[in-house]
Design goal:
The chain is α+β, with helices and mostly antiparallel strands and 240 residues long. It contains seven helices and four strands. It has one domain: Ubiquitin Conjugating Enzyme (Roll), CATH 3.10.110. It is 32% helix and 12% strand.
Length: 240
Amino acid sequence: MAQHGHRRVASSQKALMLELKGLQDEPVEGFKITLVDESDLYNWEVAIFGPPNTHYEGGYFKARIKFPIDYPYSPPAFRFLTKMWHPNIYENGDVCISILHPPVDDPQSGELPSERWNPTQNVRTILLSVISLLNEPNTSSPANVDASVMYRKWRDSKGKDREYAEIIRKQVLATKADSERDGVKVPTTLAEYCIRTRAPPADEGSTLFYDDYYDDELEDDEEEDEDCCYDEDDSGTEDS
């Protein structure tokens, strides 16, 4: 039994070392990764940058990813350390997203097994899903009911009900002190945010951008940076 456990540890450590090296050699737009402790491959610290032209622009959001011993066969846990007001983030910072749920058949959840974790997922796909989720909340099974109700009011009023947007902007401003303390320059334009050498993976057609009716003052930046990574469909989600 002990030998089997050692094999699992060796296998998960190898997978994590390869992923960490890959993410540091070829960074992905929107986040940076470090180990919480150099001697522990199972705990990663992530800094997520808020995508430009969204409520989260300029934000610096810290999170932890904790990996299980049998990774990648079981999903890691993802928790924000930064205070987040979002329909799919619990009060304690835990993120509720299908990709992080074990692939068991649970009809009660409303999730298909295919939407859940499987060993072909990795840190890159998790982080891109979380970044996408920030601006495209799933309100069908919210982790934070109050945030979900407020988000729907904002969405249904076409942005006229500003309460949801205002809370997030305040939280974004509050992260400034963290980024300054860590000496990190947060990208605020699409050109800075995107790493053009990599094509982004397809993400079920969700988009990180505002619809046209959101903040007018952001439109200038959009025009300057039209050739960037997420711009194939920045018209929002009118058809959803």
